[in-house]
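> run fold DUF3558 domain-containing protein
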Amino acid sequence: MPPVLPAGVLALLLALLPAAAGCTSDLMDDDPDGTARGAAASPAASGRHSGLPEPCGAVEEDRLRELLPEAGPEELTGEPALTFDTGRQAACSWRSPGESGTRELSVEFVRVVSYDPEISDDDQAALDFARSAAERDIPPLAGQDTAGQEEDGDGDTPGSADGTDDTAGSADSSDPSDPDNAADAGGTDSTDGTGESADPGSGDGTGGPAGWSGPAAGTSAPTSPVGELAPRSLEGIGHAAFIDDQLTPTNSGSRRDIVLTFHNANVIVTISYRETTGEDDGEPDSAVLQERVRKLAGQLAGLLDE
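> ok
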């Protein structure tokens, strides 16, 4: 005959059974995959870069003297742009008038942070970069991932919060409600901020930073070179890069704007270089200006690799 439990012990066991069942059910969620509650998918990895170089000091003196050959010591110092958070966005500009023309340079760094747990910072930067290239009609290299250039039914790129325009280009990767990212909420150029990481200063419609003048009234629209110097994707600079080149007639001569954008992991870098010449000086040489900008891009890409 099986042992008989005392009535008090039996009542205690019966009282404890519902509590034990509740503990067990709390451990498991009702998700179809049966995963335990709290065992949510791990967030995407943080970006490689947690800060940005100081832009005015990032450009080596040899590069500056090549880009601004008639600049004096004060002009070579550069003027930093005001941003809300220099750890997220930092820029510097130089201007050098001279007998052979006026030259202007801008360098902008944008550190991309993804607020989508399924998209890493590095992947968001790649999406932002690809969108910037697509907006400029830059053809990708053969075999290059163009996912960031494909739009969904709403016209937004993957990872984009609002599908708005970007500066050094891109999908909106910042949280506009975060005060630290206020510089990234508007999204057009390096001086007023861009959460879209970096479309090279689209403030004037020619690719230069905000504050650079657009085409003069009554002049022809900008034109780009063809052949080997045409706007294109580049190899060997960062993880991906492109260069844009536009020549604009002015009332007294001509102006050439070179914009080179590249990304290294979760940082997007935009270099904007402009040379304006008078009527008697001829057009600024596309090959010469592009080569100067490519050298600077290579130097900055190496800095981010350190």
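Residues 34-39, 147-203 have pLDDT under 50 and may be disordered.
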